[in-house]
Amino acid sequence: MFENLNQHYPFNNNFKHNLRTIVLVSMGFMLLMLYFQPFGINFMNTSKDGYFVLTIGIVSAVVLFLSTLIVPGMFPVLFDTSRWTIRKELIWNFCMFAAMVIGFTMTALIFNHESLVSLTLFRSGALALLPLILFNLLNYNHSLKAKVAKAIESGRHWLSDEHKVSEKTVPEKLHIASENGKEVFDKNLKDVVLIQSANNYIEIFYREGDKIRRQILRQTLHATEKQIDKFDIIKKCHRCCLVNTNQITRLAGAASNYTLEVEGLGFSIPLSRQKVLEFKNLLKR
Question: What is the value of pTM for the model shown?
């Protein structure tokens, strides 16, 4: 049991939240006393009872204000959130309770309130529990909301990361259909080497293991470009050729007779003069 008292407990040092909570607790405390008349105490016997209720409401607000906003600012090491424990939370609440009991007792004696003077400490202690319980409930609710929001945000990040990983692990597919739609080329984009025109047909060269294979489809190169224009790595290097820039090993030749070399292809890919500078920059990157 004593070991549990040393466990970490979240200390709420949010100034705006604490200030708002103190105002709500004080007002709620006064309304509860006036409406419910707790512990059999009648606060409406005399005309000064309203002032009495207002005064103990102010006393509770002052105690909470000093305890949660002033004292933690004066002793930041003592109220360090990273070292705040259940034991410290209980002691802190007991100190606030004692301060309220003293404040309520003095107020009862000053106003000479008949219901409280007879059993001053007992009934003042009973009343002091109300604002303290309200304050802790609101703080706990705020802490719970923060934890839920943090869990939801963490879940969103996790789902986002999972989605990114899944996108990376699933390879992109290159899908090219023939004119009549009966024949289809459907392979991983990274394995495609070259697409070249052959009259009314196209020849698609792609890697399959250690070998480069070829598939012929009845389709024009111009129509094929439209089908695959979303893939940036497929570039037109010649009026009759589309090449996968990730497959190029080097740029060969000189002057007006440049060609592109691909490992294992068995022939050089023509490169038009207008494309030389573009491919030189691509290969540099």
Answer: 0.51
